[in-house]
From TrEMBL:
Cofactor note: Binds 2 magnesium ions per subunit.
Keywords per UniProt: Cytoplasm, DNA damage, DNA repair, DNA replication, DNA-binding, DNA-directed DNA polymerase, Magnesium, Metal-binding, Mutator protein, Nucleotidyltransferase, Transferase
Family (UniProt): Belongs to the DNA polymerase type-Y family.
HAMAP family, per the entry: DNApol_IV
UniProt name for this protein: DNA polymerase IV
Active-site residues (renumbered): E120
Domain UmuC: 18-196
Top EC class for this record: transferase
Compartments where located: Cytoplasm
The keyword Magnesium appears for this protein: yes
Known EC number: 2.7.7.7
Organism: Actinomadura keratinilytica
Presence of the UniProt keyword Disulfide bond in the record: no
DNA sequence: TCTGGGGTCCTAGGACCC
DNA sequence: TCTGGGGTCCTAGGACCC
């Protein structure tokens, strides 16, 4: 009776871990930080802060979530579900400032730091005790900003990211191949990072309801249904496999855009044309400030009630010149033949690579 | 309950070329 | 006339995430 080699059971001396740090109810927490009298009250941040207008919830505090208010919910609905909530406008500059302090704190650790957004980052760390590192991260962020966060620990970014959701709020959770199926095997596929409602529905139609089902599926069969890259990737996702590196290099944006939902639909297409020109000049200003020439300009039109169309124009040569970008946006707009009432307009500049 | 704004990446289909 | 197969690029749109 030889049994298994013991080496396979033993952890290497120095192990690589991925930690995912996610601030708890970040936007609402920043608002409470500068208005302490709001602590403990339902706070809803979104749009212009007026729950009678068009807009959706960006973040709700846990007190508001208890009333069924969550991100993406129309503000009007949020007001109906939680009339006593405090409604605040989105103040991107304030969140960016706090975010910078959070990320600077994380860069103080001996780790590669990949920033994901205002309130999230991955850290690649070495060591045998990632929980201790996680608790130090939580303590230092609290000391530096007064904010709470949750830390997920995994062998890769996928595991760490999902671990965070299991540790929230204000916790630390470790998710590896050892407990992956125990924790996630019976959950619906949209529990995974990258599978949303649409893909989950298509998977159910193929007889795949849970993470466990998907992990056992045939990658070739899914390639037929979901495409040659996406199909096999879905199976790897369900198995908790992910080899993407934690990338500390600063992100170089591929595009920059501006879009606006109008409080009242635009019915006169002279207004539409003027608004597209405005958006194009704003985008051009940002492209020029970042010294990024645009190679293509795409205009988005959302007709009332909600049908969305895009049309683009490739520039003869990449440019950050406002007049050229505005011209291209108006040329793209001219390709829209339907002159129905418009709910939203957007202009996006795609940068030369 | 009428559905934001900022992005990224992938796919399908047509054009074009050999 | 009736005409294969493959590669690559471009465009529009879908899906997803924060």
């Amino acid at each position: 009776m030889g049994g298994r080699p013991r080496r396979a059971e033993r952890e290497p001396v120095m192990t690589r871990w991925v930690l995912h740090v996610d601030l708890d109810q970040f936007i609402a927490a920043v608002e409470v930080l500068r208005r302490p009298e709001l602590r403990g009250r339902p706070v809803v941040v979104g749009g212009d802060g007026d729950p009678t207008e068009r807009g959706v919830v960006a973040t709700a505090s846990y007190e508001a979530r208890a009333h069924g208010v969550h991100s993406g919910l129309p503000l009007r609905t949020a007001a109906r579900r939680c009339p006593e909530a405090v409604f605040l406008p989105v103040d991107a500059d304030a969140y960016r400032a706090v975010s910078s302090r959070v990320m600077a704190t994380l860069r103080g650790f001996d780790a590669v730091v990949e920033v994901l957004g205002w309130d999230e980052a991955f850290l690649a760390v070495a060591g045998d005790d990632p929980e201790t590192t996680a608790r130090r991260i939580r303590a230092r962020i609290r000391a530096a900003t007064g904010l709470e966060c949750t830390v997920g620990i995994g062998r890769n970014k996928l595991q760490a990211k999902l671990a965070t959701g299991l540790g929230k709020p204000t916790g630390v959770f470790r998710l590896t191949h050892r407990n992956w199926f125990e924790v996630l095997g019976g959950r619906p596929t949209d529990a995974l990072w990258g599978i949303g409602a649409k893909t989950a529905r298509r998977l159910r139609a193929a007889g795949i309801a849970t993470v466990g089902d998907l992990a056992a599926a045939d990658p070739r069969a899914l390639a037929e249904r979901f495409g040659p890259a996406t199909g096999p990737w879905l199976v790897r996702l369900a198995q908790g496999r992910d080899h993407s590196p934690v990338d500390g290099a600063p992100r170089v944006p591929r595009s920059r855009g501006r879009e606006t939902t109008y409080q009242r639909d635009l019915r006169d297409w002279r207004d539409v044309r003027r608004e597209v020109a405005n958006l194009a000049r704003q985008v051009a200003g940002e492209a020029a400030a970042e010294r990024r020439p645009a190679a293509r300009v795409v205009v988005k039109v959302r007709y009332a009630p909600f049908a969305t169309r895009t049309r683009g124009r490739t520039l003869e040569a990449p440019t950050a010149e406002a007049a050229r970008i505005e011209e291209a946006a108006l040329a793209a707009l001219d390709r829209f033949t339907e002159r129905r009432p418009v709910r939203l307009l957007g202009v996006r500049a795609e940068f030369a690579r």
